[in-house]
Structures are given as C-alpha cells and as structure tokens.
Amino acid sequence: MYHFRHPLPLVLAWTTVLGLPALTGAEGTRLIGTGPVQVGTAGAGVASPQNSSWLSLNPAGLVDVSSRVDVSTDIINGRVEVTPRGNPAVANTSDGTLDDSVIVLAPAATWVKSWDGQAIGFGFYTLSGLAMDLPGGRSALGDAGGYDNHAEVRTMATSLAYARKLTDGLSVALAANLIYSDISSNSLNLQFQETAGADEVDRAFGGGFSLSLYQRWEQVSLGANYTSRQWMQSWDKYADLYAGPPDQPPVLHLGIAWRPLPWLEPMLDYKWIDWDSVATFGNDIEDKGLGWRDQHIVKLACNAKMRDNLVLRAGVSYGRSPIDESVAFANALSVLTTEWHATLGLGWQMNKEWDVQFAYLHGFKNEVTDNGGDAGGQAEGTTIGLEVDSVILGVGWRY
After folding, report:
1. Residue 276: is its pLDDT beyond 90?
2. What is the mean pLDDT of residues 180-186?
3. Which domains, from first to last, does the chain contain?
4. What are phi and psi of 172, to 5 degrees?
C-alpha cells in the first residue's frame, strides 16, 4: 500500500474545489466552525484543540496537536422565506411568500507540523457567505423589472500560523490571514434602480491577523483568540450598494474546557462578533449599510470518548440575530436570522494514521418582522426567516 510522505500535496489538491459556492452563514454570514470536529461541538472548543482545523479557532492550541492533515466538506441546505408586506408600491406584496432552498458546499483543508513545543499551521477554509435566489423581486420595482431577488457573497481565508509554548502549559500564537471575497447581486439600490453590478461577479482581496493564547492544566484548559478586522479592497461594481469595502469584523473568542473524568470534556465558550464596527454591516440603511448589531454568542458543548477509537460530540449555541426588526425589509436579500443551533458529531480513529469525522448541524428557524423602521415605514410587516441543516464530512491523516 502506498503511503503519502508529506501532507502538503493533499492540502494543495483540496484547494481545487475552493471555487465551489460556499455560502449560507450560521453566525451572521460566518460559518459556525471549520470542519466536522469544530461543528460537532457547535463551534466551541477554543480551549480544547483536536486537529489542524484549530488553525482557524485557536492557533495557540496547535502545539498540543500532532502533525497531521485534515480535509472536509460542509454540505449546507439553507431554506429562506421572505414575505414582503406594506405599501404595494414599495414592497412586492402581490407574490405572497417568496422562498428559496439551496444546497451549497463549504470546503476546508488544513495542515500542522508540530515539534519540541512549537507548531506551524497552514490551510484554506470557508470563512463566511450568503446565497439567495428568490422567485420574485423583494420590491415592487424589482419584481416588475426582473431584479432585486438575488445575492451571493462568499469569503475564503488562507492562514499561516506559528505557535510556541512559553511554559509547560502555556502557549501563544500569531497567524497571518489572506482573505478572498466575491459577490454577485441584482439588488435595488438607494436610487431605486438595479445596482450597477447587475449580477456580475466582483472580487476583493485583503487580510488581517489573529493573536491567541492556550493554557492547559491537568483537568482544566483555557483558550482565547482575537482576530483583527480583516481589511479588504473596495468593490468596483457594487459601490452604489455598499457603504465601503467588504471588511470582515473583529472577533473575540474565549473558552474553558473541563475534564472531570478521563473520557469526558464539557466546554463553555463565548464569542463576540463586532459587526457594528464595519460600515457595510453596521451603518444605517441610509448610509448604505445593513444596520446589523453586534453578536454575543454562548456555546455549551461536550466531547465524550466512548471507546479508544470512538468520540461522540454534541453542542448547542445561541446568539441573537444581528438583524433586528428595524431593518428586516432591507435585509430580505441577506436573511441571516438563525439564533439557536444544535449539533452532533462522531469521530472514528480507524488506525494510528487515519480518522474519519462526521457532524450534523441544525439551525432552528427564526423569523424577524419589520416594524416600519426602514423603507420609510412603507414595508412594515415584512417577515424574513431562515432555517439551516448541514452535514459535514472529514478525513484526517496523522504522519
């Protein structure tokens, strides 16, 4: 049987699928985690490194991860419902409820090399996105003109991290992130016309950094990861639609893991996403923003080692939707309203080198109804809602 001698060919080969749409957010536009191990615990585990995908969650924990490669695909089914109401001259009230169901993929591939209390991590993963294609226009003008019904945005990250132990239990890490984002939309703009982008694809590049800490004792671990604002180029074709470049917001993630028994590890995490600091997300609608508020997310999860080669995972996550009742109509092409998420995961260690991972996520349906705060009060009663199911499959190779 042939054995791979180095993991990088696997990582590079996996990037060939990164051109696939990788959309539908779980925390705003952001995916709840990278790969089945993270998703199996609802994105918790900043204090419990498990594999090389911790490059995105807490790079400092990579010092406790053996040298390995992990590849995965998140298969997402998002179901959107939009019911425009209000003034029929403004909102498309003639078509009733507009719905969309789409299946998309979110691939990831990560690699870590660890030695003598140090580690280097590298990989590609899906960071965030959204995808909608309604059967009719959100607005009356858009419905009449055959537009204002589609939006698709995806953001991918490439990260390189270095982690080092400072003491037997404390490690730190610095990661550099390269970000790619693209968009296509036919949305109505503030001039009551179809955006100049007219559903053409526009691209932007940017980057930022992450700083992380990881402290492990015998029964308790602590973790912290701060990801800076990811500064991006401005859109060329959609300047009439958004307040600024598609910067990704700063994120702070804190967590604790406890091991009361050798086979049991409960975890509690807190995550803050600073949407309001980015003009595109936080600005008022009149200033070409989406009017989003910050998210404060709490995650409770558990790893349970059922046998030497079998791990069961479960988690629940709650974070108030970034979209409130004052901007529901404006966000009818970015329906990212889910708040509660529940997950299950299973990991099977086939042999000393190979493992297989599986996770399932359900984002419970949540609706937001416009209170007349946007569109001059002309779309009051518009309801938007989202429900998500996701299956995540992954394979790991330890070398």
Report:
1. yes
2. 97
3. 8-398 (2.40.160.60)
4. -130, 160
User: Looking at the chain, which runs of residues are DSSP E strands?
Assistant: 68-83, 98-115, 118-133, 150-165, 170-185, 202-216, 220-227, 231-232, 251-258, 264-273, 295-307, 310-319, 340-349, 354-369, 383-398
Cα–Cα dist 169/105, whole Å: 37
Say whether pLDDT at 97 is over 60.
yes
Query: Among all chains, which residue has been given the structure tokens 């409770």?
Result: 300
CA 217/CA 151 separation, integer angstroms: 47
List CB contacts of 184: < 8 A, sequence separation 6 or more: 150, 151, 152, 197, 199, 200, 201, 202
Tokens of 36: 């089945």
- From first CA to last CA, the distance across the chain in angstroms is 15
Q: What is the pLDDT of residues 288-323, one digit of tens each?
A: 889 999 999 999 999 999 999 999 999 999 999 999
Q: Judging by DSSP bridges, how do beta strands 68-83 and 170-185 pair with one another?
A: unpaired
The encoded tokens of residue 59 equal 């790079």
Q: Under DSSP, is residue 353 helix (H, G, I), strand (E, B) or coil?
A: coil
pLDDT digits (tens, 9 = 90+) for 369-392: 999 987 788 999 999 999 999 999
From the list 333, 323, 325, the residue with the least C-alpha distance to 100 is 333
